[in-house]
Write a structure and sequence with these properties.
The chain has 134 residues and is α/β, with parallel strands linked by helices. It has six helices and five strands. The protein has a single domain, classed as Oxidized Rhodanese, domain 1. The relative contact order is 0.21.
């Protein structure tokens, strides 16, 4: 009986796993595994700071500069419906953490990573970025 209880607890913990916060080195390793990165910053931030090469750019703000999760999630879902893992990034890790948790609630089977200190820390640590042309 104890063994069944332990298995149940471990299974429940695994199934209800939360967002996985990662650092720069872990992100670098995940990039090598070709896990897709979603950059949720604004278009202005992408142009002024740059992006991690290969990132998918889906701002949290719509054309009216408002965040409407259902609208954002439809865009996300249409592009990444088949993915088993995804990485969210923003400038400092706050917005990406927020959207990571919202997506995880909608799609609990998805493995969701969040770059905890954001792209600003990525850049300060000497990792490469790609500049967007205006």
């Amino acid at each position: 009986m104890k063994i069944l209880f332990v298995i149940f607890v471990l299974f429940t913990k695994f199934v209800s796993a939360e967002v996985i916060d990662i650092n720069n080195r872990e992100l670098s390793n995940l990039i090598e595994k070709e896990i897709k990165i979603i950059d949720v910053r604004t278009q202005r931030e992408w142009k002024s700071i740059g992006i991690i090469e290969g990132s998918f750019l889906i701002s949290l703000l719509n054309k009216n500069k408002k965040f409407i999760f259902e609208e954002w999630y439809e865009i996300f879902k249409n592009k990444f419906i088949k993915d088993k893992s995804i990485i969210f990034i923003c400038a400092s890790g706050v917005r990406s953490n927020y959207i990571s948790h919202l997506v995880k609630k909608k799609k609990p089977d998805l493995i969701v990573y969040n770059l905890k200190k954001g792209i600003n820390h990525w850049i300060r640590s000497g990792y490469k970025i790609q500049r967007l042309s205006n």
